[in-house]
Specification:
The structure is a single chain. The protein is of the alpha+beta class. It has three domains: about 120 residues, Beta Polymerase, domain 2 (2-Layer Sandwich), CATH 3.30.460; about 100 residues, Four Helix Bundle (Hemerythrin (Met), subunit A); about 70 residues, Winged helix-like DNA-binding domain superfamily/Winged helix DNA-binding domain (Arc Repressor Mutant, subunit A), CATH 1.10.10. The chain has 14 helices and eight strands. Helix 4 runs parallel beside helix 6 and helix 7 packs across helix 12.
């Protein structure tokens, strides 16, 4: 017993000597936790300000705009001088017992991120909801101010990306309902689609989409997200309820086809001829940063809004035969109603 007590005392002495703060109690009040995190951040930033290679610090994550709890950490973006030899983009720091996830981004890369990023992308939302703590370079402050601008084209592209992501889960939900009649798994795939549809709702309202986007969307469209999200989570999975949720999801996307898939329709109209799935994917990924557009094309073709055709392709550069690749084409005049 005495030996165990002595070991505990030795550990306590070592912790004290190393300056390691004890873990926060999980039942601490939110106010006291925020005070602890803020004090730790202030102390760390005071140190970082003395480092002339760090031009600015941007507080991101929960401490900048949301609630923190005992197991939260601090997200800190550090804009650095341009240095080709830099090799540590991420560091996990200890600020008086609080974990700090610091990610370094060089000034040129930060400018490129702000000027070239698609608004409402993950990185854009992370930085836009952050708070500039200090800067030694006023051009960085000007760039941070521009993060709150959301252009119409950026919104269109992000809506396309979110809708395309949702379509994959919606298709899976239909498959499991039709082929297996599995209500639980069908409901799960509907729930998977809920996050992407919530992004559609929030971005459609010209708001920044948080990581916690479903609570945002619940405030904007309570009946819809109650049916496809909270009711599916909290109620018994009956065929009537699951089918109603899936029908609601289908209607939600169908009613927004021009808004969600406009860039695809515009691209096919502009090129004026059939484009293979590879060519379409390459165009949207290389020029617009959007992937998986073939899924959107299949959706539009199934509804007769674009044509599904084929174009010849060689399987390898050395192939001596050609096969047919899936392709899509604009059909001419758009129908009066989608």
């Amino acid at each position: 017993m005495a030996g165990r007590r002595e070991r505990r005392q030795n550990r306590a002495a070592l912790v004290s000597a190393l300056g390691i703060a004890p873990l926060a109690a999980t039942n601490s009040s939110p106010e006291s936790i925020r005070e602890k995190f803020t004090a730790a951040l202030d102390e760390l930033v005071a140190q970082i300000k003395k480092d002339r290679s760090i031009l600015a610090a941007i507080l991101c994550g929960s401490l900048s705009h949301d609630m923190v709890w005992a197991k939260s950490d601090i997200d800190l973006a550090l804009v650095t001088i341009d240095d080709k030899k830099a090799s540590m983009p991420h560091l996990s720091l200890n600020a008086n017992g609080v974990n700090v996830h610091a990610f370094m981004i060089q000034r040129a890369a930060f400018r490129k991120t702000v000027e070239g990023s698609i608004r409402n992308s993950f990185m854009h939302s992370l930085l836009a909801k952050g708070r500039l703590l200090y800067t030694h370079d006023q051009t960085i402050a000007q760039l941070c101010a521009r993060l709150h601008e959301i252009g119409e084209r950026d919104t269109q592209l992000q809506l396309l990306g979110a809708a395309t992501f949702a379509l994959t889960s919606i298709d899976k939900a239909h498959k499991w309902l039709v082929t297996r009649g599995d209500l639980e798994y069908t409901a799960l795939w509907i729930l998977y689609s809920a996050t992407a549809l919530a992004r559609v709702e929030v971005m459609g309202a010209r708001m920044l989409a948080d990581r916690e986007v479903i609570p945002q969307a619940m405030k904007l469209n309570p009946p819809f997200f109650k049916m496809i999200y909270s009711d599916l989570l909290n109620s018994k999975k009956t065929r009537k309820a699951v089918e109603a949720a899936l029908d609601a999801v289908d209607d939600y996307v169908a009613q927004r086809i021009p808004t969600l898939f406009g860039p695809v329709l515009e691209h096919l109209e502009e090129v004026g001829e059939a484009r293979s799935a590879t060519e379409i994917e390459d165009h949207f990924k290389r020029n617009l940063g959007i992937e998986g557009v073939t899924t959107a094309c299949e959706y539009l073709a199934d509804r007769g809004l674009i044509g599904k055709v084929s174009t010849p392709v060689q399987l390898t550069k050395a192939s001596n035969i050609q096969v047919q690749e899936l392709a899509f084409v604009h059909l001419g005049e758009e129908p009066d109603e989608f």
